[in-house]
Amino acid sequence: MGLPVEKTDHTGVTTRGTMHDGMKMLLWLRTGFHVHQRFADIRATDADMLYAETVRLPWERVIPTEGCLSVVSAVDNPTITNSMFPNVKVKDAIVDRMTKIHGSRPDSNSRADHAVIHLFWKGDQARLSLDFAGPKLSDRGYRREPGKAPLRETTAAAILMETGYDGSRPLVVPMCGSGTIAIEAALMAAHRAPGLLRSRYGIQHLETFDEEAWRDIRAEAKRDAIKTTGIAPIIATDIDPSMVASAGRNARTAGVEHLIEFSTCDFADTPMPDAPGTVIMHGEYGLRLGDAEELAPTYARMGDFLKQRCAGWDGYVFTAREHAGRIGLKSAQRTPFDNAGIDCRLLRFELYS
Ligand SMILES: C[S@@+](CC[C@H](N)C(=O)[O-])C[C@H]1O[C@@H](n2cnc3c(N)ncnc32)[C@H](O)[C@@H]1O
After folding, report:
1. Is the pLDDT reported for residue 147 higher than 90?
2. For the chain, how far is it from start to end, CA to CA, in angstroms?
3. Which of 40, 89, 106, 170 is 20 to 30 Å from 223 at the Cα level?
């Protein structure tokens, strides 16, 4: 997005920008879950100190008195054994201060669907931030029918980015399930802001929210999504007709139905365009005891399909690590992914013609 990267770690990226940049991030980030605006860094050795430092901060500038707030946290402090306790302490500090200043206080709940305060507390250092997103940005709003083992929308987008997909060459997604990879690809190829599909964000519940700027930024993002020509075919198939129907409806909700060709078939019969491109397969993992072994022949057939029908293509399989060796092809690259707690790999295969 052209913003400076000040720091990165495995949970996030720190940058610097205006409120407008923050709003744009909500609309345009494809792989992020939340956008946190730092409010204050404080020192707290225990919960009483956390309260004492939090109550001193000018919350009345950012939280509307008639609003509603939630506190969420990630805490690693030796004095804390109940993970909800710091949230209650921060919430108490904010409402006590606002009651003192205004004589009335905002409501609070634990749903994180209005103004959301995020506490990150490690050792004796704590950071309080305002969560512009509220509910996770992965909840784009198009996947009304999630299917059996759907990928998070953000994970699907990250897989596509890792493959270098840009819409200029065909994309084939056999085993498409609820269609997440194909839909994210269509959104990327058409230069559509994924956040436009959703209308509710945490930022709208902050005192600092600029409604007019938000309307302008959304209108600008809508104007930007002009690319509908020059997008190479996106083909998505699944053996289960009910999944193909759900994927089609999800694509329609996302406004990209016209960019994806859906059909029902075994992955081995997927129609392949003449010009080569990228093929991405996301197989089942079989998480229950014994199921993983049963999937071994399917993974071997996936390897055969890639070798026999996808020569000249960039082939990828996304799966749980334990299945990686069952495909019977040597991978050229293995990218680790934490997929909702499951240790996964995106495997790249060079399929020479
Ligand atoms: C892990 S799910 C894919 C989830 C998908 N990425 C999503 O986000 O919804 C695997 C899919 O493979 C499909 N499948 C299983 N065996 C198949 C086969 N032999 N041919 C085609 N699809 C198959 C299942 O119906 C299921 O939808």
Report:
1. no
2. 37
3. 170
Q: Is 147 in the pocket of ligand 1 (CB under 6 A)?
A: yes
- In this structure, are 51 and 124 located in the same domain? yes
Mean pLDDT of 138-153: 88
The reply to whether 173 and 262 lie within a common domain is: yes
Q: What is the CATH number of the domain that holds 188?
A: 3.40.50.150
User: For ligand 1, is residue 57 a contact (CB within 6 Å)?
Assistant: no
Asked whether 327 and 320 are in contact (CB, 8 A), the reply is: no
Cα-to-centroid distance, 212 and ligand 1 (Å): 43
Distance CA 266, CA 221 (A): 38
- Could you tell me the distance, in angstroms and rounded to a whole number, from the CA of residue 45 to the centre of ligand 1? 49
- Note the pLDDT of residue 131: 98
**237 shares its domain with 304:** yes
Is there an atom of ligand 1 within 6 Å of 286 CB?
Answer: no
pLDDT for residue 218 is more than 70 = yes
pLDDT confidence of 289, banded at 50, 70, 90? Answer: low
Q: Does 92 sit in the ligand 1 pocket, CB within 6 Å? A: no
> By alpha-carbon position, which residue is closest to atom 8 of ligand 1?
150
Using alpha carbons, list the distances in angstroms from residue 75 to 47, 69, 114, 207.
11, 19, 22, 27
Number of structural domains found in the chain: 2
Average pLDDT over residues 114-134: 97
Domain assignment present for residue 230? The answer is yes
Q: Which domain holds residue 101?
A: 36-131
Residue 19 belongs to some domain of the structure: no
User: Is 240 in the same domain as 322?
Assistant: yes
- Which value, in Å, is the radius of gyration of the alpha carbons in the chain? 23
Q: What is the pTM of this model?
A: 0.94
Distance 197 CA to ligand 1 centre (A): 25
CA of 240 to the centre of ligand 1 (A): 8
